[in-house]
Amino acid sequence: MAGLTDCTPLAARLEAHVEQGVPLTADEQAHLRGCEACRADLQLLRDLQLALLEDIPEAAPPPELRGAVLAAAHAAPARPAAPGWRRRWWPAALSAAAMLTGALTFTAFLNQSGGVASVLPDPAVVVSTGAEMLVASNDRSGTLTVLRGDHVRASLTVGGRQTPWFTEGVRLGDRVFLADAANDRVLEVRAWPLQVLRQHRVPDGVAGLSAVSGPGGARVYFKGVRGEVGVLGGPQVTLARETGQPLADVMDGVLLFGGQLFVTHHLSGEVCALDPDTLAVQRRLPLGGMPVALAPYEGDLLVLDVTGRLLRVSTAGEIRQRWTVPGHPDKFSVSGGAALLSDRAGTVTRVPLGGGAVTQMTLEHPMDVLALPGGTFAVAEGSRGLRVLDSDLHTTVHLGQQGQLLPARP
Prior knowledge:
Elements: H1 8-20, H2 26-34, H3 36-53, H4 64-74, H5 90-99, E1 123-128, E2 133-137, E3 143-148, E4 151-157, E5 166-172, E6 175-180, E7 185-190, E8 195-201, E9 206-214, E10 217-224, E11 228-231, E12 236-238, E13 254-257, E14 260-265, E15 270-274, E16 281-286, E17 291-297, E18 300-305, E19 309-313, E20 319-324, E21 331-335, E22 338-343, E23 347-352, E24 359-362, E25 368-372, E26 376-380, E27 386-389, E28 395-399
Antiparallel strand pairs: 1-2, 2-3, 3-4, 5-6, 6-7, 7-8, 9-10, 10-11, 11-12, 13-14, 14-15, 15-16, 17-18, 18-19, 19-20, 21-22, 22-23, 23-24, 25-26, 26-27, 27-28
Helix pairs in contact: 1-3, 3-5, 4-5
C-alpha cells in the first residue's frame, strides 16, 4: 500500500483516533481500506467504548479510568504475526473499567470541522437542538454532525456491530435521543459539546421515538420493530407479535398528544391510543393503509400513510380531511401551515394544510425532514448531504458530504 505498508505505527494512531478524535491521514485511511486486521482493530476499539457506555448512568468519569483502561490494553503481549491477538487485551480492559467505582461520560472521537474526512456521509436523521442541528448518518462509522447554519461545529463516530441505521431522533432538553434499528439501541447524545452520554438497549430495534417532559418527569417512548411499545428504562407492552422486517421497512410514529400516547402500527393499518403511564391500549383506530408517522395539528392528528395518503384525524378516530399524495412518503414535518413529506425513492411533497395545490420536487435520496422557523425545512438527502428548502421548495442552503457549502439550485 503506497505511503503506509507497516501496521505497527498505526496501532497507536487508531487509539488516538478513537479516544481523542485525532483524524487519520489519507495514507492511513488507504491502509485501513486494504488491511482487514487493522480494520478489525479499529472496530474492536469502538466496541470497547460502546460496551463501556451500556447501562451506565451519566456522571463525571473518575480521573484514573482512562489510565487504567489503557494500561490494561498496553499490558497485552506485543502483536504477533498470527491472527487472534486482537482480543487478548479486551477482557482485561473491560475489567479495569468495571473495577472502578463511579460512572463514565463518553466523549467519542470528537473532531472540529477542519479535521473531519466526511462529516455528512449519508444523512438519515436530522434533529433541531435550538440554534443548531444534529445530523445522524447511516455510514459504516455512524457519523454524528452538529451544524450551526452552514457551518460544521463538530463531528463524531459511534460505530456499531452492524452498520448503523438511524430511524428517528427526538430532543429532550439538552439531550437528543437517536434510534439505531440495526444495532437495537437508542443513543443519548448531548449536542454541545458533542458527546454520546449513554446507549440504551432496546429489543428488536427501534421504529419510532417520542420524548416528553412534564409533571410525571422526563420520558422517552419507543416503538419496537416487532410491535413493542415502551419507555426507555421503564415498562413495556406488546401491541402485536410481528416477525422481523428489512431495515428499509422499519418505520412507525409515536406521539404523546392530548394526554394519550398515539402509536402507528403500519403492518395492521392502525393507530393505537395508549395510557401514557400504564401503556394499556385504550382503543385502536383502524385507518387502513400503512400509517407510519404522526404530528399534532390544530387539536387533531396528522397521520402519514406510506401508501400515499396524509390524513387529518380526530383523537376519537374520525377522518376529517385527507390528501392524496404521489409516491410512498414515510417521513413528514409541519411548518408555516404546510406539511413537507419525504419519499426516499426521490421526492419531497409540500401539502398546504389550509388549501391550495400540492407541489413536489425531485431530490436524490431524502431520508428525513425537519421543520425550521419561518416555514422552511431541512431535508437529510442521503449521500447528497443536507438541504434547506423555503416555502416554495427552493434550495436556500445545501451542505455536501464534506460539509462544504454547495451552490443552491431550484
